[in-house]
UniProtKB/TrEMBL annotation:
Pathway: Steroid biosynthesis; sterol biosynthesis. GO terms for cellular component: endoplasmic reticulum. The keyword S-adenosyl-L-methionine applies. GO terms for molecular function: sterol 24-C-methyltransferase activity. The keyword S-adenosyl-L-methionine applies. This is Methyltransferase. Its EC number is 2.1.1.-. It comes from Trema orientale (Charcoal tree). Keywords: Lipid biosynthesis, Lipid metabolism, Methyltransferase, S-adenosyl-L-methionine, Steroid biosynthesis, Steroid metabolism, Sterol biosynthesis, Sterol metabolism, Transferase. Belongs to the class I-like SAM-binding methyltransferase superfamily. Erg6/SMT family. One of its GO terms (biological process) is sterol biosynthetic process.
Length: 307
């Protein structure tokens, strides 16, 4: 379970947005989406503003309900949710074949949960790239607490315009982040996505960019437990209580109370509501096998380019 408490949740809603501007940020964020009349072109043109508003609004909810790593994972029977999250991070380090001391880039790093685990597991130095200032400030604090602040850092930049020269890093990974790229319902609005694209389009884009794809697989296909299980209201787990139907009901009421007494900014309940809508959309998309957040690929630059 996450270490963040109710007061962290309340004080974090809105991130770097002024507390009295949170409600209008929620309204502006909702208006980007088709179900509120938003146009695709406007979403693409304003994707930085859209996803920054989204992450300012939701980060403390994610941390409260999900922990320090903001992604899904394939999961074995008997494995806890947090174990499955860490196993995926270890798997990525092994797939990338990194060696102690190497420099690694985490693209779209959230508050750095994956990069801390990756760095500790592989003894590498990991830089997190993120365009959200609030998440970077949280990540720096958590790096310090975890004792990896000497070897791991953050860079604030848009991953569509990376500020690094070629071969700065020995390896690069991204976990559930490039879905926010602008060139490419419920899941879109509740997860800050501009427009969802198919796995075949991702593969095609990789090849067109000149990468050699070593292997790819949708882990959703044969994960013994479905990736959406933590969000499925019919599933109960004590170790993951905050994600269950009862836990979410209590969180909702907690947010209503915190907003009422002024500890959480106005608009906090609206954020909880759109996250709830997203959770339902994700479970539905997972059950109908029309959406996956755990499509994996391993690719490399062709030999001649990587010298
Ligand atoms: C779902 S979160 C995943 C975070 C992290 N990979 C994890 O698993 O904890 C997506 C992340 O991508 C970042 N992001 C989205 N679009 C970005 C962009 N254009 N440039 C840099 N970061 C971006 C967001 O700020 C957020 O941190």
């Amino acid at each position: 379970m996450s270490k963040a408490g109710a007061l962290d949740l309340a004080s974090g809603v809105g991130g770097k947005i002024e507390k009295n501007q949170v409600l209008s940020a929620v309204e502006k964020y909702e208006k980007y989406h088709a179900c509120y009349g938003g146009e695709e072109e406007e979403r693409k043109a304003n994707y930085t503003d859209m996803f920054n508003k989204y992450y300012d609004l939701v980060t403390s909810f994610y941390e409260f309900g999900w922990g320090e790593s903001f992604h899904f994972a394939p999961r074995w029977k008997g494995e806890s949710f947090q174990e499955s999250i860490k196993r995926l991070q270890h798997f990525l380090a092994l797939q990338l074949g990194v060696k102690p001391g190497q420099k690694v880039l985490d693209v779209g790093c959230g508050i750095g949960g994956p990069l801390r685990e990756f760095a500790r597991f592989s003894s590498t130095s990991v830089t997190g790239l993120n365009n959200n200032e609030y998440q970077i400030s949280r990540g720096k604090e958590l790096n310090r607490i975890a004792g990896v602040d000497k070897t791991c850092d953050f860079v604030k930049a848009d991953f569509m315009k990376m500020p690094f020269s070629d071969n700065t890093y020995d390896a690069v990974y991204a976990i559930q982040a490039t879905c926010h790229a602008p060139d490419a319902a419920e899941i879109e609005i509740g997860d800050g996505l501009p427009d969802i694209r198919s796995t075949s389009k991702c593969l095609e884009a990789l090849k067109q960019a000149g990468f050699e794809v070593i292997w790819e697989k949708d882990f959703a296909v044969d994960s013994p437990l479905p990736w959406y299980l933590p969000l499925d209201k019919s599933h109960f787990s004590l170790s993951n209580f905050r994600q269950t139907a009862v836990g979410r009901f209590l969180t909702k009421n907690l947010v209503v109370a915190l907003e009422f007494v002024g500890l959480a900014p106005k608009g906090s309940q609206r954020v909880h509501d759109f996250l709830e809508t997203a959770a339902e959309g994700l479970v539905e998309g997972g059950k109908r096998e029309i959406f996956t957040p755990i499509y994996f690929f391993l690719a490399r630059k062709p030999e001649s380019d990587s010298q």
